[in-house]
UniProtKB/TrEMBL annotation:
This is Transposable element Tc1 transposase. It comes from Blattamonas nauphoetae. Residues 45-65 are annotated as: Disordered. PANTHER family: SI:DKEY-77F5.3, TRANSPOSABLE ELEMENT-RELATED. SUPFAM superfamilies: Homeodomain-like. Residues 147-298 form the Tc1-like transposase DDE domain.
């Protein structure tokens, strides 16, 4: 309660009003009125008398001057870590504040220590092209986007479990099977090409060699028309990013000869493409199964890709109108997608 309401509550109480009546008139919970009157019912109606009483407890570990310095420093350098911040505001003295204190002070200002999100590096030209694309497609419906066959390449890895994994165990279970983390000396990486649409996932093609115009053409010859017709219909639009192997004269000639219409795609725009989200989920699902060998990696990757059904892909494609709106709101900048 602020001082004005405290004074009003006390005046009403002394005028004979009940706690229920006071609560209704001031729009304050009755429990708050009751708690206030139990402490202040005999006090004079003055700001000094009705102010909060001094509270017992541990004094703040930082001074007002240190708080101001901390606030300015965080706003100036958001990447500065808590131990460096503690040393900075302590001025090199022996009385160092704790990591927890730094986090509490920052929380008071609505600032929280979080993992920095990664976004594509965007030039001014990229931003403008992304904005132009969003403007051109802002009115597209989900049916319009369902005509698009999205495609991309991505790498999936096994044996990359170098990070610490925290578990609950007893003291004597440090080396018990099932309580240890298996490691693989050499990580295996496989690269895949695939496609998807609102109707479901497309083919998953293993890329055994470097992606060149020749190898990419073989992939398209093998899968593009079949996937596009099956998932989008015969008049599908083909989406691919701006990788050099995608934009060669040979690839463009193939698309023209087959009568395949390509959806022009802005540079550095993975957040526009739903297949990027699919590959991200795929990598997590494969990692959870910890394939121990190359053959297992291929088998598990194919299984998990095929399990990402049409309900999931339709939800991803259905987000495209929101992605276009988000890009416009960001002025062509990066979005949360």
């Amino acid at each position: 309660m602020d001082l004005a309401n405290r004074g009003a509550a006390l005046a009403l109480h002394r005028g004979g009003s009940t706690q229920v009546s006071i609560a209704e008139q001031l729009q304050i919970p009755r429990s708050t009125i009751q708690s206030f009157l139990s402490v202040h019912h005999k006090d004079p109606i003055s700001d000094e008398a009705l102010a909060d009483r001094p509270r017992a407890g541990r004094p703040r570990a930082t001074t007002e001057k240190q708080d101001r310095l901390l606030h300015r420093t965080i706003l100036k350098d958001a990447s500065m870590q808590t131990d460096d911040l503690a040393q900075h505001i302590s001025g090199g003295g022996s009385m160092m504040v704790s990591d927890r204190t730094i986090r509490r002070r920052a929380a008071e200002w609505g600032l929280y220590h979080r993992v920095q999100r990664k976004t594509p590096a965007l030039t001014r030209s990229h931003v403008q092209k992304r904005l132009d694309f969003a403007h051109a497609h802002i009115d597209w419906t989900i049916d319009d986007w369902s005509r698009v066959l999205f495609s991309d390449e991505s790498s999936v890895q096994c044996g990359s479990n170098h990070g610490q994994q925290w578990i609950w165990r007893r003291i004597d279970e440090a080396w018990v099977d099932g309580k240890t983390q298996p490691t693989i000396k050499v990580a295996t990486t496989m690269k895949f090409w695939s496609s998807m649409s609102a109707a479901g996932p497309g083919s998953l093609h293993i890329i055994e060699e470097s992606l060149t115009s020749d190898s990419y053409l073989k992939i398209l010859q093998q899968h593009l028309i079949a996937d596009g017709t099956r998932l989008c219909g015969s008049d599908f639009l083909f989406q691919q990013d701006n990788h050099p192997s995608h934009k060669t004269e040979r690839i463009q000639r193939f698309l023209e000869e087959k009568g395949i219409q390509e959806l022009p795609w802005p540079p550095n725009s993975p957040d526009f493409s739903p297949i990027e989200n699919m590959f991200s989920v795929l990598k997590r699902l494969v990692a959870e199964r910890s394939p121990p060998s190359k053959d297992d990696l291929i088998r598990i990757t194919i299984e998990e890709w095929e399990n990402l059904g049409s309900e999931y892909t339709h939800a991803l494609v259905s987000s495209l109108p929101d992605r276009m709106q988000a890009a416009m709101t960001a002025g062509g900048g990066a979005t949360k997608y």
